[in-house]
Each structure stands twice: as C-alpha cells, then as structure tokens.
Amino acid sequence: MTAALIIAAGQGRDRRQIEPDREVGALSAVKRCVLTFQAAGVARVVVVCGDREDGRTEKLVAHMNVTFLFSSDAGEMLDSVKLGLSFLQGKCGDVLIAHTDVPLFQVETVRALLEAGGGLCVPVCGGRGGHPIRLAAGYIPEILAYGGSGGLAGALRAAGLARTEVPVEDPGILTHIQDRDGCEALLSAQREPRLRPAFRFQLMRDQPFYGPGAHQLLQLTEETGALLDACRHMGISYSKGRKIIANLERQMGCPMLERTRGGKDGGASTVTPEGRALIRRYSAFCEEAETILTELFRQYFEP
C-alpha cells in the first residue's frame, strides 16, 4: 500500500514558511494536494501541520479522511518529513512525499510514480526533477538517521539511493506557489478536470452508523493504541470520538474497543476481534465495490 505524505509545516524556499492555506485557483494549496492524491487512488493521506492550537489546516481539509500530525516547531521542512515518515514506518510499502508550496502536480503524474519501479522515483519535466517523489518504505530509517543540513535532498544523497527518473508532461511538478504568474498560466492552460466518480460507502440500520470517518477512527485507534490519539490525528474532539464509537457499538451489538482508564490522557484502547473483523470486511467491501462501480461508470460515461 502506498501512502501520501503532505508537508504543510516548516520552512520552504528562501526560509519562508510553507503556506498550506494559500489559494491556488478555487482551492487551497493543501486541499488541492489531497484531492490529487485521492483522485489517483491513494487512500491513506497524512498531512503534517503546524501547532495543533492553530487549527487552520485541519479546517481546510476537514471530512476528507486525512490523518493529521502536528509539528510543535515550524523549523526545517525535513523535520516535518521525518515526523511523517516516523508515523508511516511499518504502515505502508511506499510513501509519496509532497509539500503544499508545489500544489499543481497532476493525477497522471501520481499514477506514473505509482507504476514506476525503483526505491526513489522522481518526476522529471523538461529535464528538471520536481515534486512529489516516491520513496520505498525500506529507506525510511536512513532518512530518519540523517543529521545534516542539506534538507530532504541532502538526506536522499547521504542515503546513496539510486534515483529513477519518471518522465512526465507536467510543469506543475516544478511550479512553486510563490510564482503567481506561473501558477495562473498553468491553471489557465490546464484542461477542465476529467469527469470521474466518487464513492462513499456507509453501513446502516435505521440510520448510517459506519462509513469512512468511523472506519478511519477505528483504524487509527488500532494503530495508536489510544482513542484519544486517534481523535487527535483526525482533528476531532475526544468527546466526538467517544460518541462515534458508542453509536457503533450500539448498532453492532458488541464492543468495538476494550478500554483501560488512564486519567486525563484517556487511557489505552484496544480494538476488539469484532472491531478488527469490521475493519477488514469494510475495507475489502469498499475495494471490490469501487472496482465494480468504476467499470460501470466507464460503461455509461466513457463510451
């Protein structure tokens, strides 16, 4: 499984702070990145934000099944990359790494990176490499161990990774958000987005009770071992998370979590065998249903 890591905190070009809320066309930079990855079929998207108390970035991509990580200090962009890679280590096979200062890369570019072989894949347009890049998860420890001052590029060089260039006809991989004229020209030149289907599957009895949000909450609780941490990663309150789980348990007629009280931090939470079975069955159902419905969409809308 390939995950996407979007850096929305830290210092980018010329030591300026990354601007995830800068509007690019009709969308914020961070939302444009999330939508592009999801349109390319990347289900797991992680966004590294600034201080949690700010909350602006989470609001821009709320209800989009994004996992949020919070960087307490807005230092080098590499610090944010390391935070994201530490979280994703052991959870995926490859990581697509992008930052919101280069938000105009295309769906076709992401798909080309997904199909390419190699441990480090870089899209190239007009002889120049750009963003996002794809990194095999096996190289994450080497990036995390880097202590130099060369940023992500320096970490990749120090790791000695062979670079696989992926040719693309996509100047968006090179267009920086500070280049206002370049962004406007690129947006004007782009074709109208291709028509595509979007699916959201829910389980219900008298009303819906399990869909993408509850599914993500249960998955993150299993990974982190704490409902409180899962809520933080989703950008929702602990009380809301408890209500979601309580409703789920009521509708399913069995416990989804086993809880250990732990004071102000909410204690530990272990997903029950019934909860893990629900995660597996829902994931498999969604994957198969999307395949079938995508083919049906092609029959009706792509003659």
Automatic annotation (TrEMBL):
<keyword id="KW-0808">Transferase</keyword>
<dbReference type="InterPro" id="IPR000847">
    <property type="entry name" value="LysR_HTH_N"/>
</dbReference>
<feature type="domain" description="MobA-like NTP transferase">
    <location>
        <begin position="4"/>
        <end position="158"/>
    </location>
</feature>
<dbReference type="Pfam" id="PF00126">
    <property type="entry name" value="HTH_1"/>
</dbReference>
<dbReference type="GO" id="GO:0016779">
    <property type="term" value="F:nucleotidyltransferase activity"/>
</dbReference>
<protein>
    <submittedName>
        <fullName>NTP transferase domain-containing protein</fullName>
    </submittedName>
</protein>
<dbReference type="InterPro" id="IPR051815">
    <property type="entry name" value="Molybdate_resp_trans_reg"/>
</dbReference>
<dbReference type="Pfam" id="PF12804">
    <property type="entry name" value="NTP_transf_3"/>
</dbReference>
<dbReference type="InterPro" id="IPR036390">
    <property type="entry name" value="WH_DNA-bd_sf"/>
</dbReference>
<dbReference type="InterPro" id="IPR025877">
    <property type="entry name" value="MobA-like_NTP_Trfase"/>
</dbReference>
<feature type="domain" description="HTH lysR-type">
    <location>
        <begin position="221"/>
        <end position="276"/>
    </location>
</feature>
<dbReference type="InterPro" id="IPR029044">
    <property type="entry name" value="Nucleotide-diphossugar_trans"/>
</dbReference>
<dbReference type="InterPro" id="IPR036388">
    <property type="entry name" value="WH-like_DNA-bd_sf"/>
</dbReference>
